[in-house]
Amino acid sequence: MTAALQIKEKRMKLGLTQKDFADALGLDRHGDRTLRRWENGETTPSPLILKSILNFASERPYAVESKKADFRFIDLFAGIGGVRIPFQELGGKCVFTSEWDKFSQKTYQVNFGDLPSGDITKIETKDIPDFDILLAGFPCQPFSQAGLKKGFSDTRGTLFFEIERIIQDKRPKAFLLENVKQLRGHDKGRTLATIKRHIEDLGYSFNADVLRAADFGLPQNRERIFIVGFDKHRYAIDEEYEFPYPTPPKTKTRLGDILEQIIDEKYTISDKLYEGHLRRKKEHVLKGNGFGFSLFNAESPYTNTLSARYYKDGSEILIDQGEGRNPRKLTPRECARLQGFDDKFIIPVSDTQSYKQFGNSVAVPVVRAVAKAILQEMGKFKEREENG
Questions:
Q1: Is 94 a catalytic residue?
Q2: What is the model's pTM?
Q3: Domain residues for 221?
Q4: Which residues contact residue 82 at a Cβ distance below 8 angstroms, ignoring those fewer than 6 apart?
Q5: How many domains does the chain have?
Q6: Which residue in the list 140, 177, 208, 269 is annotated as catalytic?
């Protein structure tokens, strides 16, 4: 088979466009043109580059061979699997995954070897295997400052009730829910109070706390609420029970520790975009508010929160490149590191999709700390006699 056919076959197998594949391979600004020429046989990559192309995503770095698991869990609204990784590391087996976004499904499958089921609203509880822990980074749009702030009146907000349905029908031992910090104060606290009431009515404990990624070793000022509950029908838990959230180590952070050394020029923002950023920044200053783009450098202790809209203009996190150069956006790999994904995590989609995916994902070290605390508690609880 010719190199042209091998490259095209590889791309088609991954289900990527030429632009997606060029970005995933780390080619330059005009990488899709280069890839097109390779596939058309107009030019041929060097043997070394061809080998790297054919080896791309050939292994699933987070696939786990079938073995006896310490516990079983499901991963709802899974995104790209950031919540799954720590629970899998701690001996758990994922027995069901749901994620509706086709690009996130692709990234998830490439890394874990599992293709997530789609829309959870169309999946019956009886079709979900039994499990011990429910994980759900449920959609934050209804509760985010960046969203419509409609809470449960927003139809997306009702996705919480899909979680409620599954907890009610499957009775897991525990659950972990993750959402934006703003959920705590949304609608003057009534939204979270409603969630709490529904959870407690199911016979589960309910604790919620906001944890910050920068306090767990990541150079990002990302705050998220983590809701934890245990089955009080199974465990002898006092009414006053408080889940012991992990104490953050508050390790000193430095942005330069996650930045790449060699950066393609395609990540440097254009003169037009930079001029727009500067103009809007000036307008905001005149209005007396702090909005506008934010500039960081290698010595910055941490960045702003990475968001799903980062692909648009990068305004919340721009990297200073020194005198005489426009700032640049983070690379997708830097976004992965900013969220605590290690470098073996495969990014098989375009830059635009990867920015959305990492912006929507979780700070993995924070989840890891919470996961350890959950399993420690489950190991200490006494089961009620009817469950013994």
A1: no
A2: 0.90
A3: 71-251+363-387
A4: 137, 339, 340, 341, 361, 362, 363, 364, 367
A5: 3
A6: 140
